[in-house]
Write a structure and sequence with these properties.
With 335 residues, this protein is an alpha/beta fold. The chain has a single domain, classed as Aldolase class I (TIM Barrel, Alpha-Beta Barrel), CATH 3.20.20. It contains ten helices and 14 strands. The strands form two sheets. A twelve-stranded mixed sheet has the order 9-10-11-8-7-6-5-4-3-12-13-14. The longest helix has 14 residues. The protein is globular, with a radius of gyration of 19 Å. The structure holds S-adenosylmethionine (SAM). Catalyzes the cyclization of GTP to (8S)-3',8-cyclo-7,8-dihydroguanosine 5'-triphosphate. Pfam families: Mob_synth_C (PF06463), Radical_SAM (PF04055). GO terms for molecular function: 4 iron, 4 sulfur cluster binding; cyclic pyranopterin monophosphate synthase activity; GTP 3',8'-cyclase activity; GTP binding; metal ion binding; S-adenosyl-L-methionine binding. Keywords: 4Fe-4S, GTP-binding, Iron, Iron-sulfur, Lyase, Metal-binding, Molybdenum cofactor biosynthesis, Nucleotide-binding, S-adenosyl-L-methionine.
C-alpha cells in the first residue's frame, strides 16, 4: 500500500473519504445501561488525560478547515456532562465552511440545555431511549431518570433542534416486545426512530451473537403493525430507512452486525483523550494529544490525522468468527 497524501482530505487506502467527525467529549456517563457499562462505572480518564475545551476546538477547526470534515457530532460517554460543550459548539459554528453540528445524548439535562445549545449553533440532537416504561428504564439504565429523558426530547423539539432522532437498542427478553410501540410513540411526536443492533462494545465483554436482536427480527416485529416501504438514497447513512404506512414518518435500522455498511463509511473518530480511531472497531489509535501538547503546528496535526485514516480497514468484521472486540468500550471511544 502506498502512503497517504500530505494534502487534502481524510482518504483511506480503499478510496473512502471521511467527512463526518465523531468527537467524544468525556468517557463518563450518568447512566449505567447494562449493554454498555457495569453498575460501578469504569476507571474514568483522569483530568490531565482529557483534551481541554480549547484543544478540542482546535482539532475540530483543523478537521473542518483543512481536512474536509462537514459534519461534527459530539458524543461520549455523556456529552452534556462536559461543561465546555456550549463553548465548543459555539466555536465550531463559527467555522468556515460551517459544519453541521449535532449531539448524541441520553437526554438527561437536555431540558435545561436545549435552548442554549440551539442559540450557539447546534443543529440537531439524537436522544437514546430504549423503553417507554419507567420501571424498565430503571432496570436497563440502573437510574430512575425516564421522565428527564422525555422532558429532554420535548425540549429539543421546542428549541428547534429537530428533526430529533431517537436511538434504541433492543435486548432479548428485556425490551424487544416494544419495537412497534416505540415506533408508534415516536411517529406521534415527530421523532425519527432508529434501532441499533447491539454491538460487542460493552466494557463487561458480555455481548453474545445469539442474544442480539437482529435487524431482520426488528423489521419482522415492525411489519406486524406497520407497512414499511424502503426509502432509496441511503448514501453514507448507517441506517437503512423505511417509510412507515406510506409516510411521511420513517423508521431506521442500523444493522451494524448483520448488515454492515463499512464500504460507505465516512466516519473519523476523536476520543476524549485525543486519539484518532479510523473505525469504532479499530484495534489501533493514533495519538494527537501528544502532538498537540508537544507543540505540533496545524499542518503536522492534519498530516498525522490523514495518516491515521489512510490505514482504515475495508470492514469491521464483527460477524467474523475471528472478530476481536476493541480494548476500549463504546463509552470511551464515543458512540
Ligand atoms: N450517552 C450518549 C447516549 O446515550 O446517546 C452518547 C453515547 S452512547 C455510547 C451512544 C449510543 O450508543 C446510545 O444510543 C447507546 O444506546 C448506544 N450503545 C451503547 N452501547 C451499545 C452497544 N453495545 N451496542 C449498540 N449500541 C450501543
Amino acid at each position: 500500500m502506498s502512503t497517504h497524501h500530505r494534502t487534502g482530505g481524510l482518504v483511506d487506502g480503499f478510496g473512502r473519504v471521511a467527512t463526518d467527525l465523531r468527537v467524544s467529549l468525556t468517557d463518563r456517563c450518568n447512566l449505567r445501561c447494562t449493554y454498555c457499562m457495569p453498575e460501578e462505572g469504569l476507571d474514568w480518564l483522569a483530568k490531565p488525560e482529557l483534551l481541554t475545551g480549547e484543544e478540542i476546538s482546535r482539532l475540530v477547526r483543523i478537521a473542518v478547515t483543512t481536512l474536509g470534515v462537514r459534519e461534527v457530532r459530539f458524543t461520549g460517554g455523556e456529552p452534556l456532562l462536559r461543561r465546555e460543550l456550549v463553548d465548543i459548539v459555539r466555536e465550531a459554528a463559527a467555522l468556515e465552511p460551517r459544519p453541521t453540528l449535532s449531539v448524541t445524548t441520553n437526554g438527561i439535562g437536555l431540558a435545561r440545555l436545549a435552548p442554549t445549545l440551539r442559540e450557539v449553533g447546534l443543529d440537531r440532537v439524537n436522544v437514546s431511549l430504549d423503553t417507554l416504561d419507567p420501571a424498565r428504564f430503571k432496570a436497563m439504565t440502573r437510574r430512575d431518570r425516564h421522565a428527564d429523558v422525555l422532558a429532554g426530547l420535548a425540549a429539543a423539539v421546542e428549541a428547534g433542534l429537530g428533526p430529533v432522532k431517537v436511538n434504541t437498542v433492543l435486548m432479548r427478553g428485556v425490551n424487544d416486545d416494544e419495537a412497534a410501540a416505540l415506533l408508534a410513540w415516536c411517529l406521534e411526536r415527530g421523532y425519527e426512530l432508529r434501532f441499533i443492533e447491539q454491538m460487542p462494545l460493552d466494557a463487561q465483554h458480555g455481548w453474545q451473537r445469539s442474544e442480539m436482536i437482529t435487524a431482520g427480527e426488528i423489521l419482522t416485529a415492525l411489519r406486524a403493525a406497520f407497512r414499511l416501504d424502503p426509502e432509496s438514497g441511503r448514501g453514507s447513512d448507517p441506517a437503512e430507512r423505511w417509510l412507515v404506512d406510506g409516510g411521511p414518518g420513517t423508521v431506521g435500522v442500523i444493522g451494524s452486525v448483520t448488515r454492515p455498511f463499512c464500504e460507505a463509511c465516512d466516519r473519523t473518530r476523536l476520543t476524549a483523550d485525543g486519539q484518532i480511531r479510523n473505525c469504532l472497531f479499530a484495534r489501533e489509535e493514533s495519538d494527537l494529544r501528544a502532538a498537540l501538547r508537544g507543540g505540533a503546528d496545524d499542518a503536522e496535526i492534519a498530516d498525522r490525522w490523514r495518516a491515521a485514516m489512510w490505514t482504515k480497514k475495508a470492514g469491521a468484521g464483527i460477524d467474523d468468527p475471528e472478530f476481536l472486540q476493541p480494548d476500549r468500550p463504546m463509552s470511551a471511544i464515543g458512540g
